[in-house]
């Protein structure tokens, strides 16, 4: 028996024969090499059977010499399927168009919602978003991912402390927490002020409490500076000590700076390449130019395509190739020492609170060692050394 | 006379040399699977076919298969596969 799969692929036809001598017709077919199968007799003078599509012509030839009338009642197989599909091509085209439109619309930002912000801040955020390309009608995959948006927004809009960015389907939700004006101070529980670190007191400014030290006193770390217990013995009162105690403190820092440094600086020139990826396969879509940059820094960004509300395994990838320039910096010994001191001061400044002042700087040690300079510095700083310490009252 | 003598000769050879009789003597080989399939090789053409009866021409004689719901699954010049409920297989000698 023949494999029926082959017949299905090649296409087969159901033939209805009517008349006398159906047996003779079948015999003739078989003798001519026409494959006949599933012969069924329905009544005395009608029968149906299947033949291959490619045998139809030969069957006509055979049938002419018989007394039967033939008609074709069924078609199955791939060729007919294709013909039908072609006849329905309008429908398929429509379906394809529909899918394409849904795909396109699923990848567009339809709504931007900013919640929790005052109108002014909201306007500011909206303007900032527009600058970043986030607006209604933008393609989702061309935008930054939520984390980056969040970071950029908190950087660029000063009035917000936190912003939550979330995709909900085709709309982008921003939940904003604004910086609030601090509430009026709560009554402070009784406390002392103690030294943050060892220092020599330079100045005292006590608002409340009993100062226990005076200018030019040397204090240890944790030493009581202003007591929260006031009043004569026996009639003591607990108060929250407050005020500022400026002390001279000392810092030591060591900076090592090489004379020669090479680093990469972006020149601002770049080329972009756009890809559509699936799994690990990347199909280039736009940008084939080979950059002529000697040094490059490559950034890649991946965003999934969406359909309806799902992320497809398809994604958009943008590869940005930026030109980098190698820059060599060279210091003389003197310049290196100066630069090292500058760096040390900057570092210290960043560590200190704003009201602190650097009063003096002393070089303890400076040395040249194989291509590097090593500078040890000592700083005198005037800063507020008072930190509160609650008074634990026994019952 | 010669024909009969040749037939006898062939039968003798088939027996003596243990050759398959259907090849030597041009007889039909019939294979049945229960009463639902019948496979006949070495026929000489279809004589009559309905859903209750199949009549095949053989080299000498006819083969009649009777039953119900007959469908010829495949037919080739010398082979035929019939499906249905088979009740009788009858030889008719000429």
UniProtKB/TrEMBL annotation, chain A:
Keywords: Membrane, Transmembrane, Transmembrane helix. InterPro entries: YqfD. Pfam families: YqfD. It comes from the Bacteria. The chain crosses the membrane at residues 90-110. NCBIfam families: spore_yqfD (TIGR02876). This is Sporulation protein YqfD. The lineage of its organism: Bacteria, Bacillati, Bacillota, Bacilli, Bacillales.
Automatic annotation (TrEMBL), chain B:
InterPro entries: Spore_YabP/YqfC, Spore_YqfC, YabP_sf. It comes from the Bacteria. Coiled coil: none annotated. NCBIfam families: spore_yqfC (TIGR02856). This is Sporulation protein YqfC. The lineage of its organism: Bacteria, Bacillati, Bacillota, Bacilli, Bacillales.
